[in-house]
Amino acid sequence: MQRIRLRYTKRGRLRFTSHRDFQRAFERALRRAEVPMAYSAGFTPHPKVSYANAAPTGTGSEAEYLEIALTAAREPQTLRALLDESLPTGLDIVDAVEARTSGLADRLTASVWELRLDGVDPADAERAVQVFNTAGSVEVQRMTKNGMRTFDARPAVVHLETQSETADRPTDRPCAILRLVVRHVTPAVRPDDVLSGLRAVADLAPPVPAAVTRLAQGLLDEETGAVTDPLAPDREAAEALTTA
After folding, report:
1. Residue 243, Cα to own-chain centre: how many angstroms?
2. Residue 72 has pLDDT above 70, yes or no
3. For a disulfide at 61, which of 55, 179, 218, 242, Cβ 3.0-4.6 Å?
């Protein structure tokens, strides 16, 4: 059995697809591309696909990951191209490696997010970020299946800063852009929780919903605060085999 790890995106309008929607689209792509999938045992066999830490519905992403198990070996980049052609534009398979190490999910310990706040003056956002960063705790509330839950969002936030505005803004309205690095903890701290925290401690309330995109996810380097590529160990293992 061969295992292939894939990185895929959710772009444009397809950021509104749910994880279940993506699962259905991906399984159709597997059939169209005639991928020799391994299947689970039992009365209702399913293709062996492992999804890791999917982004919430409504958020874009450049860094979603999954792993598939095959019954026959395939070249990863050829397989990537075939699957990408079989998916709608916006759900794009952008990287593929053969799994040569264990624990992909264990290497997804943090995410880098970009939050675009249309209608928010960058100076106001900068002041709010400073208040958030100096706060000892930032309590937020989120509705769960067990009711309203209150938790401290501050410890999970490794880094929060404002970014310079881009030159391609579609209107002259003010726009603040935030860059956020957050640890994957329990309960999960999401970008909307950070926005709730900014509202709670600094009264920052965007007039329209934020456009949220996950730029990266992987292993957090505690010294630098950087988030590393989770597929890099598999590439390095493959290179070591070819040079041995």
Report:
1. 33
2. yes
3. 55
pLDDT at 207: 95
Report, as an integer, the average pLDDT of 34-63.
Answer: 93
Task: Tell me what the mean pLDDT of segment 87-92 comes to.
Answer: 96
Q: Who's near 39: CB < 8 A, 6+ residues apart?
A: 45, 46, 47, 48
At 24 the pLDDT is 95
Q: Which residues have CB under 8 Å from 33's CB, separation 6+?
A: 79, 82, 83, 85, 86
CA–CA separation, 19 and 11 (whole Å): 14
Single out the residue of 24, 23, 137, 30 nearest to residue 80, CA to CA.
Answer: 30
Q: Which fold has domain 2-99?
A: Alpha-Beta Plaits (3.30.70)
Please report the pLDDT score of residue 171 as a whole number.
61
**215 burial class (0-12, 13-18, 19+ CB within 10 angstroms)?**
middle
Question: Is residue 33's pLDDT more than 60?
Answer: yes
How far is the C-alpha of 197 from the C-alpha of 213, rounded, in Å? 18
pLDDT at 173 over 70: yes
- DSSP letter at 120? -
The domains spanning 2-99 and 107-228 adopt the same CATH topology: yes
| Coil/strand/helix, residue 95 | strand
CA 163 vs. chain centroid, Å, equals 19
Q: Which residues contact 56 (CB under 8 A, 6 or more apart)?
A: 190, 192
pTM score, whole prediction: 0.92
- What mean pLDDT comes out for the span 61-70? 97
The CATH class of the 107-228 domain is alpha beta
81, 74 contact by CB (below 8 A): no
